[in-house]
């Protein structure tokens, strides 16, 4: 049987990471709302800007949602004229997705909000510790298999 400390769960690293992620998500929701975007939609636009033609499955992994949820995200983005999906796949069943010009403009405007939040969050970490913190976060994700 695993040994448990007597410290409260709120003192644990995982709780604190979740608390920070929740605060970021809440602020992103607020900031993206005037741009007509949700956090998964914004993440999808960023992924498509960096790698045009990604499939639904690739986008779902990158945006941290299920494939079923990504279908809903893509439908909303397509209905809004922000992305276009191929009607037919060139290879297999995956339908590549691309940003439209409107999608690229919306992404540019929304980036201001997200990048400002990132700068605000980063300012809370002393500069000399930031590189180590980022390395540690990457190591934690790798340790847990992500």
Automatic annotation (TrEMBL):
<dbReference type="InterPro" id="IPR039422">
    <property type="entry name" value="MarR/SlyA-like"/>
</dbReference>
<protein>
    <submittedName>
        <fullName>MarR family transcriptional regulator</fullName>
    </submittedName>
</protein>
<dbReference type="Pfam" id="PF12802">
    <property type="entry name" value="MarR_2"/>
</dbReference>
<dbReference type="InterPro" id="IPR036390">
    <property type="entry name" value="WH_DNA-bd_sf"/>
</dbReference>
<dbReference type="InterPro" id="IPR036388">
    <property type="entry name" value="WH-like_DNA-bd_sf"/>
</dbReference>
<dbReference type="InterPro" id="IPR000835">
    <property type="entry name" value="HTH_MarR-typ"/>
</dbReference>
<feature type="domain" description="HTH marR-type">
    <location>
        <begin position="10"/>
        <end position="142"/>
    </location>
</feature>
